[in-house]
Specification:
- The protein is of the alpha+beta class.
- It has a single domain, classed as Aminopeptidase (3-Layer(aba) Sandwich).
- The chain is about 25% helix and about 30% strand.
- It is built from five helices and eight strands, in the order ββααβββαβαββα.
- Helix 1 packs across helix 2.
- The longest helix has 16 residues.
- The chain is globular.
- The structure holds coenzyme A (COA).
- Coenzyme A binds next to strand 5, helix 3 and helix 4.
């Protein structure tokens, strides 16, 4: 089976009980800045919290251009409270799979919303979409060893441990060890 050359959000909107998942827009700048500038949020994902609105603007422009990062918009308030990206994977890839057949999921949620089960639901609808509406064969998701919160999301969403990795997180001046997990199409429907 051929892989998916590019995943693009465009007009796609996915829903969970409390969130709309949709493409980022320029109007999301202030909301993105609120959580991206909170110390201790991005650091769990390997990037430094933003120190200026200009920095957030550059990231937002990148999200909009690449068109592969969902804005997590809280239904009740209309605010964007996080992001969930579906990224092209770096090598190494799981055995037998080509780059076009695999994507890596990454996510961040504003601190006041942690621990309410929002991200497992968001990951769940994205995984379901990718396996039912595209021909992707597998998804990866990773966390740094210290990030128990992300490990719990990954476990709740049915991913299984694949391998360890080491990452040079230059923005925060640390070499970080982590674990990558795999969810194959076969396991998802099995
Ligand atoms: C990882 C993250 C997206 C989890 O999303 P979430 O919607 O809070 O997920 P859950 O509600 O399922 O909570 C996951 C775990 O976090 C723990 N948790 C909740 N609130 C917490 C808090 N304030 N501090 C520490 N841990 C907390 C819970 O114990 C939960 O585990 P449990 O279900 O076994 O009790 C969120 O914590 C986050 O954005 N973290 C910072 C960025 C990040 O780590 N991104 C991932 C990089 S790999």
């Amino acid at each position: 089976m051929t892989g998916m050359e590019k995943f693009e959000i465009n007009d796609l909107v996915l829903e969970t009980p409390r969130l709309h998942l949709r493409r980022f827009r320029q109007e999301d700048l202030a909301d993105l800045y609120v959580y991206a500038s909170t110390p201790g949020v991005g650091e769990m994902a390997g990037w430094k919290h933003h120190e200026s609105l200009e920095e957030t603007r550059r990231v937002l422009t990148d999200f909009i251009c690449k068109n592969e990062v969902f804005a997590l918009q809280e239904r009740e308030s209309g605010r964007v409270i996080g992001s969930l990206g579906v990224h092209v994977c770096q090598e190494p890839l799981p055995p037998g799979l080509s780059a076009g057949q695999v994507r890596e999921i990454g996510y961040v949620l504003a601190k006041p919303y942690w621990g309410q089960g929002l991200m497992p639901q968001a990951v769940g609808v994205v995984v379901d979409y990718l396996f039912t509406k595209t021909d992707l064969q597998a998804l990866l998701c990773g966390h740094f060893d210290f990030n128990r919160q992300s490990r719990r999301v990954i476990e709740k969403c049915g991913f299984v441990f694949w391998q360890t990795y080491r990452y040079d997180a230059r923005q925060i001046g640390k070499i970080l060890d982590g674990r990558v997990y795999l969810l194959t199409r076969q396991a998802y429907f099995g």
